[in-house]
Each structure stands twice: as structure tokens, then as C-alpha cells.
Design brief:
Blueprint: H1 2-20, H2 35-38, E1 39-44, E2 50-57, E3 61-64, E4 69-72, E5 78-80, E6 89-93, E7 97-102, E8 105-114, E9 121-128, E10 130-132, E11 138-139, E12 143-150, E13 157-158, E14 160-161, H3 197-200, E15 202-207, E16 212-218, E17 223-226, E18 231-236, E19 241-242, E20 251-255, E21 259-265, E22 267-275, E23 282-289, E24 291-293, E25 302-309, E26 314-318, H4 355-369, H5 376-389, H6 393-423, H7 437-454, H8 468-471, H9 477-491, H10 499-508, H11 511-534, H12 536-539, H13 548-555, H14 557-599, H15 603-625, E27 640-642, H16 645-653, E28 658-663, H17 668-678, H18 681-690, E29 693-698, H19 704-712, E30 720-724, E31 732-733, H20 740-751
Parallel strand pairs: 27-29, 28-29
Antiparallel strand pairs: 1-2, 1-13, 2-8, 3-7, 3-10, 4-9, 5-8, 6-7, 9-12, 10-11, 12-14, 15-16, 16-22, 17-21, 17-24, 18-23, 19-22, 20-21, 23-25, 25-26, 28-30, 30-31
């Protein structure tokens, strides 16, 4: 068997490669200073009629001259003159234009006049803003310090910092290509995280009727968009203009900076007429908009460039190119305020691991995946082929190698896709494909088709040798290969122990390193069958083949049907009963198509009828795509409260211990933990005894707020469990697989800091 020998040598070479890679040095952490340490302000009023201000600016930081604003705390008691500031270094800022900045130490003076000459104190507010000019390049939000100085005091008095203002507006927004928030990347005075701009204000554009556009913004809960801060400008060609937008009615809102305005929550659709004609139907527009998080921060103005083809209806949305470099420009709001900048690793996050450790953890994680309930239905397929190999060592090795090849190819493809999407700036976690109803429906079809094949309803012949669902049930190399692929597909909603740190490392690593880590996961998943195929002593422990195997094969079809039922339950949670009905109709059409193909003696005619029924099944699946998300209003019976950043911040501020559980209906590991620990009476008694609030976040469907929380704790997906101690302090991550003793120990510690 020359081909088998080559495949064996290649597999051995891969194993040796994974085992002998050199350790990868860790990147040094780039710590960022708190704003009051980066820009240390001291002040004194030792000279009557003048306040002296002194900033000591840390290395690699700079302060904007034009962002220094000095005001009296009580204008009736104190009048300030024009501050005397030294000249700064002239610099062209991409967003603020020509500015002056300061490095090192600077001294400023401010003349003042007291309304009552007998007053002995001077109270004023000093606001300033600066940036970190090397990686990670971020700008701090404007920071205000309240000074109360003794008139004539001979010594310099350190400024007394106060909390940063609760709202950052466009008038005081960071610039210089900076992150929206500095250190820490949280809302002032809370532990809540602000979403990245493109998640907080999801922007889309559609061609409407060939002479108009429909602009759409979708915002998570508590985020809103300003009507008056939106501008639409046609960049090219000349002669085409945007007409008056047809704004829908919004919500009246009083803004302390902008006065009475109109804002929009949830979603707003804006028709925009176009006047004039483009010769080729193509034009470019810039759309600028601004919004805020209620009782939190406001984002700087965001601008998106639209490349529109009116003839085809195609619209490409991107950041406008920089005038100087021609590269896509990043506005301050485009740089995500969460996760925190590099070097600001949240408490409780996994400690960094080296490449060898990550590969070892991936290998162990893949091995443990074999014990997870999500993989067991597909492993039953593999068990059949292993048993069929009987007494032939050559056949057993073939089965093992082709199955391993399918697993490795599927894991590599999945890993490269996920890491590639994340590298492009889009957040995605392990198992996120199960948030897509069409993917759920397609898996229902696959499980049904595999089950029907095992039940003997139809057999896949050579002419259908490339159909994925049927290949999993075939004998021979193609069946083994696609059984491995299917095992990876159904394994993705499970997170086994050891996997988290390995996948987190892969997400942050280069594509080649990520590729190796995902291959190690696949090798771990395939390892039991490799051992059976290549270790005769283990293979001899298997029962001898016989007629009983056909009965076993048919019996193992029922786990496939149960898996399809579970997937339908998940789909019902996501899109409601209508989606389930559509997929059930499609499943019946698919079953009819396979039944007809299996019994037909005229291949040509059977293909036509099968194709028509299959097209009907796909049409039903496509209709699911357009259904709205199901309303989920069920009252929790496990004592939990819904997760929200604001509620978590409120509980932590009150000194209450909190257990945050990020879960999803499609997460088998989550459901196993709930059954074993979180839904038990003992756990409810534990919550009462420790005074812990149990907070649950549901990630069954797409949820940017929960995705941001997962990013904050460097979690590759769900489940994620974080315990916050009584009286404040950093959160502590728990294992993805829970035991009662683990949870009890964590909550007892958190309730007695």
C-alpha cells in the first residue's frame, strides 16, 4: 500500500512537528499609566492674584495645549483671567488639525480676582487631555481635577483629583487616532464596558428604487443616535447631491451640551433621495453620525464611506481613506474601547501561555472532547467503521488515518476562518456559528440524512460520492474522512477543559501558529481512533464483527435523530415556532427526497425528483433567515437575574458578591453544568448562605454586550463563569466544567474577602 505508507509518514511528521516546535517568546506587556500619573498636576496660590499650575508629563505621553480648560468652580465668587500657557510643539493631528502639544514639564499661570477680598481659598476646575504616543496608541478622555487652594500658601499643593465627568461629548472627544477610552477601558465610576463603535452603532446601507438610499442603524439596549449630528455628503461624481433625509419620529432628549435634541434607540431607518445622475450609476458618499451610551460615554463623530452601484444595488461600507496616506482612516470611535488595550489584562483572565504549552493544552482539550455529549452521536458512526475493520490491521489503520485527516482538515479550516475574521477586526468566538438559524437548520438536515442512511432508508452510491451528509455514513476513505469533518462540526458548541487557554492563545497568535494549535486540537480528538488503528493490543479488545453490527448501526441512528431534535429546540429559542415549523417541513421534504432516491430504479428520473424536493427543503431553510428573533420573556426559575453591565456595576458598587454565568442554549457544556450544579437545590442554598447574586447572560443569539464581556475576560466562547468578591475587587474566572465544590469554594471566598 504505497499511498498508505506515504499518508502514515506524513502523519508521523506532523506529530513530530507539533512536538518539537521551539517556544515562542512572549511579547512584553505595554502598561498604560492612570491619567493622573501620566499627567501629574500640582498647583499653588502662593502669589496673591495668580494660580500656578505645573504638569509633569511621563515619557511617551503628551498633553494637548488646546485641550487645557480652566474655569472657576463658583463664577460668582471668582473671576479668572486669560491663562498664560507656554508655546507647545506644533503638530498636525489627523483629526484635530494643527495643534500644539507638550512633553516633559510645563508651567502655566492663571490670574484671578476674588469677589470678596477676605476669602482665603481659590476654587477652580482644570480640565486637560493627553495621549500615549507609542504602542498602544491611545488618548485619554478629557479629565477634570477640582482644585481648592489656600491663598498665599508658600508650598505647592497637589491637585485633588475627582471622578472623570460621566459624559464625553464630541466637543471634548479624544483625537489623534486614539482609543475612545484610556485606562481603564470602562465607563467612569463603574465596571461596565462600552462597546466598540461598530457594535454600538451597526450601520448598513441599501439601494432603494435606483434613485434613493436607505440607511439603517441598529443599536443595542441603552445606546442612542443623534438626529442632528448626522450628515450625508456625496463625494463623487459632481452633479449628484443627497436630498433632505426623511427622518422618522424619534425620542425627545435633553442633552447638557447640545440642549433639546431628537435621538433614536434600537433601530432607525432613514430614506435619503438622490438628485442628479451618475453616468455609470456609481457614486461615493460620506455618512457621518454620532451617538452615546445612556448615562455613559458619547462617541466622537464616526464617518463611513459608501461605494454605491445604483445599477446592481451593491453597496460597500468602509472608513474613508486618509487624505495623506490613502489608507483607511480610523476615527477615535473606531478603536474599540473594549477589550482593554494590550498590557491592561483584566483580572481573572487566563495567564499567558507559550506556544508549546498552548499546543499541549490543545491536544488535551481535543482528547477530552471525545467525552463530551455533543460529539458522541458522531463518534457512534466511527465506532461502526472500526468494528467493521475486524481482524484486518490494514483496514483499521486506513479508517484511523482517513478519519484523522478529516478531523485535521476541518479543524484547520475552522481555525483559520475564525482567526481570520478576528484579525479583520470582527469579534467572533468559538461556537458562534450556532447563533445563526440557517446553520442550525442545515445541521438538522445533516443529522436527519445521516440517521436515515444508518436506518437503511437509502444508501449513497458512487454518483453521490461528494455529498457531505451522506459521505459520513459511507464505508471507505470518503466516509471516514467526512465522519471526521462532521465530528468537528458538532463538537464546536462544546468547550472542554484545557481548550480555553489554547484557543485564546490561537486568537492572539499569528495565523501559522493558530493553524498549529487548531491542528493539535484535531489531533487530540482523533487520538483514540489512531491508537485503535495503530496499536494491535488495543484493537484486539474490540468485539469481533458479525451480523449483530447491522442492528447496532440501525440503533445508533437514533442518537442522530435526537441530535436533530435538540437542534430544533435551539432554533425555537432563537426564532420561535415558525422557524421550527419551516425546518420541519424542509426535513420532511429532504426525507422524501432521500427515500425516493433510495428506492428508485431509474437514476435519471430519481435525480430530477430528488433535486426538486431538495430545492424545497433549501427554500424552507432560506425562509428561516428572514424571521425576526424570538421574544424571550420567560421568568427565571433558577434564582438568576438577567445580565447587564449597568446592573453588574450597581451590585459591585454596593459590595455584593456576584456570580456571572455566560451561557447559551446550544452550549452542551453549559447545560451539563446547569444539570450538575447550577440548577440544584444545594446551589440555591449556597447563594442564600453567601448572599451572592446569580447573574446570567444568554448568548444563544448574537448579543454584542455579552460578546464584549467575553472579550474582556479573554474567553473564546461560552460557558464563562466569573465570581466578583464582596466589597469590590477583581473578578475571578472559574473552570468551564463546574463541580459543586469548586463553586462553593469560590463563593465562600468571595463572600468573606
Amino acid at each position: 500500500m504505497p499511498s498508505l505508507s506515504r499518508l502514515t509518514r506524513n502523519l508521523v511528521a506532523l506529530v513530530l512537528l507539533l512536538a518539537t516546535l521551539p517556544a515562542l517568546a512572549q511579547d512584553p506587556e505595554d502598561g498604560l499609566l492612570p491619567v493622573t500619573q501620566a499627567f501629574q498636576l500640582t498647583a499653588d496660590a502662593s502669589q496673591p492674584g495668580t494660580v500656578g499650575l505645573h504638569w509633569r508629563i511621563a515619557p511617551d505621553y503628551y498633553l494637548y495645549r488646546g485641550r487645557i480648560v480652566i474655569k472657576p468652580t463658583d463664577p460668582a465668587a471668582l473671576t479668572l483671567g486669560t491663562p498664560a500657557l507656554p508655546d507647545g510643539l506644533k503638530k498636525h493631528d489627523e483629526y484635530l488639525g494643527d495643534v500644539e502639544i507638550y512633553h516633559g514639564d510645563i508651567q502655566a499661570t492663571v490670574p484671578y480676582t476674588l469677589a470678596d477680598a477676605s476669602m482665603k481659598t481659590v476654587a477652580l476646575d482644570v480640565q486637560y487631555q493627553g495621549c500615549h504616543e507609542v504602542e498602544p496608541k491611545i488618548c485619554y478622555p478629557p479629565h477634570t481635577e477640582h482644585l481648592k487652594l489656600v491663598v498665599g500658601a508658600p508650598s505647592t499643593i497637589p491637585a485633588a483629583p475627582t471622578a472623570a465627568p460621566a459624559t464625553t461629548t464630541a466637543a471634548t472627544a479624544p483625537g489623534a487616532g486614539a482609543a475612545l477610552l484610556g485606562k481603564p477601558a470602562t465607563l467612569p465610576g463603574t465596571d461596565a464596558q462600552a462597546l466598540p463603535a461598530d457594535q454600538a452603532f451597526r450601520f448598513e446601507a441599501l439601494v432603494k428604487g435606483g434613485d434613493a438610499l436607505l440607511l439603517r442603524w441598529t443599536m443595542p439596549k441603552d445606546y442612542y443616535l443623534y438626529r442632528d449630528k448626522t450628515a450625508i455628503k456625496v463625494v463623487s461624481p459632481a452633479g449628484v447631491t443627497a436630498g433632505e433625509p426623511d427622518w422618522p419620529s424619534g425620542t425627545a432628549h435633553h442633552d447638557e451640551h447640545f440642549g433639546d435634541t431628537i435621538v433614536y434607540f434600537d433601530q432607525v431607518e432613514l430614506p435619503v433621495p438622490l438628485a442628479g445622475a451618475a453616468k455609470d450609476g456609481k457614486l461615493q458618499l460620506d455618512v457621518s453620525y454620532q451617538g452615546c451610551l445612556e448615562n455613559g460615554i458619547c462617541y466622537p463623530v464616526m464617518t463611513r464611506r459608501l461605494d454605491v452601484d445604483l445599477a446592481t444595488g451593491a453597496v460597500v461600507v468602509a472608513a474613508p481613506a486618509s487624505a495623506t496616506t490613502g489608507t483607511p482612516a480610523t476615527t477615535p470611535a473606531d478603536v474599540a474601547p473594549t477589550p482593554p488595550p494590550k498590557g491592561l489584562v483584566p483580572a481573572g483572565a487566563d495567564a499567558p501561555v507559550g506556544i508549546l504549552a498552548a499546543i499541549g493544552l490543545a491536544l488535551l482539550g481535543g482528547l477530552v472532547l471525545n467525552l463530551m455529549p455533543c460529539v458522541l452521536p458522531v463518534l457512534s458512526l466511527k465506532a461502526i467503521t472500526v468494528l467493521e475493520s475486524g481482524e484486518s490491521p490494514t483496514a483499521a489503520r486506513k479508517h484511523a488515518l482517513w478519519y484523522t485527516a478529516g478531523v485535521l482538515v476541518a479543524f484547520a479550516a475552522l481555525g483559520v476562518v475564525i482567526v481570520g475574521i478576528r484579525a479583520a477586526g470582527h469579534g467572533i468566538q468559538w461556537g458562534a456559528q450556532f447563533q445563526q438559524p440557517v446553520a442550525i437548520g442545515l445541521l438538522v438536515y445533516v443529522m436527519l440524512a445521516v440517521g436515515l442512511s444508518m436506518s437503511g432508508v437509502f444508501e449513497i452510491g458512487g454518483s453521490l460520492g461528494n455529498l457531505g451528509s451522506g459521505l459520513a455514513s459511507r464505508s471507505g476513505p470518503s466516509g471516514d474522512f467526512f465522519t471526521g469533518v462532521l465530528a468537528v462540526v458538532v463538537a464546536s458548541p462544546c468547550t472542554a477543559p484545557f481548550m480555553g487557554s489554547a484557543i485564546a492563545f490561537a486568537f492572539a497568535a499569528s495565523v501559522p501558529v493558530a493553524f498549529l494549535i487548531f491542528l493539535a486540537l484535531g489531533l487530540g480528538l482523533a487520538l483514540p481512533f489512531l491508537l485503535i488503528g495503530f496499536v494491535p493490543a488495543i484493537a484486539r479488545l474490540l468485539p469481533r464483527p458479525g451480523r449483530w453490527m447491522e442492528t447496532l448501526k440501525q440503533a445508533l441512528a437514533f442518537p442522530m435523530y435526537l441530535t436533530a431534535v435538540w437542534l430544533l429546540w435551539v432554533l425555537t429559542k432563537q426564532r420561535g415556532a415558525d422557524a421550527t415549523a419551516l425546518v420541519l417541513v424542509g426535513a420532511v421534504l429532504l426525507a422524501m427526497a432521500l427515500w425516493w432516491y433510495g428506492r428508485s430504479r431509474r437514476p435519471g428520473l430519481s435525480w430530477v425528483f430528488t433535486a426538486l424536493l431538495g430545492a424545497g427543503a433549501l427554500a424552507a431553510l432560506w425562509m428561516v433567515h428572514g424571521l425576526p428573533a424570538a421574544t424571550r420573556t420567560a421568568t427565571a426559575t433558577d434564582g438568576s437575574v438577567p445580565y447587564s453591565p449597568a446592573r453588574l456595576a450597581e451590585l459591585r458598587a454596593a459590595g455584593t458578591p456576584v456570580l456571572v454565568d455566560m451561557t447559551a442554549d446550544w452550549c452542551i457544556t453549559c447545560k451539563a453544568n446547569e444539570k450538575a450544579v447550577l440548577d440544584t437545590d444545594a446551589f440555591k442554598d449556597l447563594l442564600k448562605r453567601t448572599g451572592t447574586v446569580y447573574m446570567k447572560g444568554d448568548w444563544t443569539d448574537v448579543n454584542p454586550t455579552i460578546a464584549a464581556f467575553l472579550e474582556q475576560y479573554h474567553s473564546v466562547g461560552v460557558p464563562l463563569y466569573v465570581v466578583y468578591p464582596k466589597g469590590g475587587g477583581d473578578g475571578r474566572k472559574l473552570s468551564t466544567v463546574l463541580t459543586y465544590d469548586t463553586v462553593a469554594g469560590a463563593l465562600d471566598t468571595a463572600s468573606h474577602p
